[in-house]
Amino acid sequence: MSESARSSSAVVLSTRRGFIAYDKLLRYHPELRGQVQFWAFLQPSRQDVAVYSRYLRTIRQTAGRINSEFGTEAWQPVRLEIGESERKAMASLKNFDVLLVNPVYDGLNLVVKEGALVNATNGVIVLSENAGAHEELHQHVLSVNPFDVEATAAAMYAGLTMAPEERRKLNEGAREVVRSNDITRWISRQVQDLRDLVVSPARSWAR
């Protein structure tokens, strides 16, 4: 492993719970301090709405507190990215050791599938059981209840310390699922569902 890649990284599609889980990870496992970095991407929206603006401010404050409490001159525990950068996002997805996607309520989370496809380091995905992609990927990720920050911290640690062969199997399994469930298959399923909706009432009427 090269010097520049020595530190592990945990990339997060974040809510504040993700930061709290990472804080617990550093408290419970001080041996990881200086060895991991939490790279969080936020795309702020509706900043003219007070509740959204306050939430972003809370995120900044939480990241700042973690960096202040645990950080050193040579190491910052949290790298917070606010705004859009396709280049940085792609770099993080290619190189993560653990990808945390922890939506509380969500539909299909495409970032999970993007991470599974492009990751080149046998990264482990920690995925909310409420994410839409969880139904497809649950056998190849570490599943968490997004409200349970203790379990999320434990899953992050499990991903970071997992044996190389197990990491490889999960990574390859997730990638294969994404490749096989492509847009063509998705459209076919939608068309078949529509056909079933059309046919079923007629069959019921015939009875």
Structure in words:
With 207 residues, the protein is α/β, with parallel strands linked by helices. It has a single domain (3-182), classed as Glycogen Phosphorylase B (Rossmann fold, 3-Layer(aba) Sandwich), CATH 3.40.50. Helix content is 54%, strand content 14%. The protein is built from eight helices and six strands, in the order E-H-E-H-E-H-E-H-E-H-E-H-H-H. The chain has helices at 16-28, 50-70, 86-95, 110-118, 134-137, 149-161, 164-180, 183-206, and strands at 8-13, 36-42, 78-82, 98-101, 124-128, 142-144. A six-stranded parallel beta sheet has the order 3-2-1-4-5-6, sandwiched between helices. Helix 1 (16-28) runs parallel beside helix 2 (50-70), helix 1 (16-28) crosses helix 6 (149-161) and helix 4 crosses helix 7. The longest helix has 24 residues, at 183-206. The chain is globular and about 60 Å long. The model is unreliable at 1-7 and 202-207 (pLDDT under 50).
Mean pLDDT equals 82
Name the CATH homologous superfamily: Glycogen Phosphorylase B
What structural category do the secondary elements indicate?
alpha/beta
Our count of domains comes out at 1
Spatial sequence of strands, sheet with the most strands: 3-2-1-4-5-6
Distance between the ends? 68 Å
The helix/strand series, from N terminus to C terminus, equals: EHEHEHEHEHEHHH
The DSSP helix count reads 8
Strand residue content: 5-15%
CATH topology category name: Rossmann fold
Q: Which descriptor suits the 3D outline?
A: globular
Q: Strand tally, please?
A: 6
Q: Strand count, sense and closure of the main sheet?
A: 6 strands, parallel
